[in-house]
Amino acid sequence: MKKLVSITPASGPVALGHYSPGILAGNLLFVSGQIAVTEAGISLASESLAVQTRQALGNMRAVIEASGAQLDQVAKVTVYLADPEGWPVFNQIYADFFGDHKPTRRPGQRFLRRFSSRSGCRRIFG
């Protein structure tokens, strides 16, 4: 079995607990859930859904690129919104972020309540 490789981007927020931002397992990259926290560790929880979504997706991109992968290799994203009414805002930013690439997607909510965040992402790709 190949050794697991921890991925921590040079630019991106520090992990808020005992976990890796990403784990490379063979040709699969597992990325931890990302919320709106800046590289300096500042929470953007009081900002708009649009600001939070852009930050969370940017944090995701940092982990992906630190592994040597690209956004067009993302196969699945689990989307977390605290308020389903924000879906149109999130969906437009998400579409702009991925462009023509359309990974599979699943909505979820539980993750965000712990961090008072309005947006976040989780994904698996290889």
General description of the model:
- There is one protein chain.
- The protein is α+β, with helices and mostly antiparallel strands and 126 residues long.
- 29% of the residues lie in helices and 28% in strands.
- It has one domain (5-125): RutC-like (60s Ribosomal Protein L30, Chain: A, 2-Layer Sandwich).
- The chain has a 6-stranded mixed β-sheet.
- Strand 4 (74-81), helix 2 (87-98) and strand 5 (104-108) form a beta-alpha-beta unit.
- It is globular, with a radius of gyration of 14 Å.
Write the layout of secondary structure elements.
Elements lengths: L4 E3 L14 E4 L2 E8 L13 H18 L7 E8 L5 H12 L5 E5 L1 H6 L3 E7 L1
Parallel strand pairs: 4-5
Antiparallel strand pairs: 1-2, 2-3, 3-6, 4-6
Per CATH, the architecture is 2-Layer Sandwich
Approximately how much helix is present in the residues? 25-40%
In this structure, how is the largest beta sheet organized? 6 strands, mixed
Structural class: alpha+beta
CATH topology: 60s Ribosomal Protein L30, Chain: A
Low-confidence stretches: none
Report the count of strand segments.
6
The best one-word shape is globular
CATH C-level name: Alpha Beta
* Widest beta sheet: strand line-up: 1-2-3-6-4-5
Summed up:
The chain has 126 residues and is α+β, with helices and mostly antiparallel strands. Helices cover 29% and strands 28% of the residues.
Task: Looking at this protein, list some descriptive labels.
single chain, 126 residues, alpha+beta, 60s Ribosomal Protein L30, Chain: A, six-stranded mixed sheet, 3 helices, globular
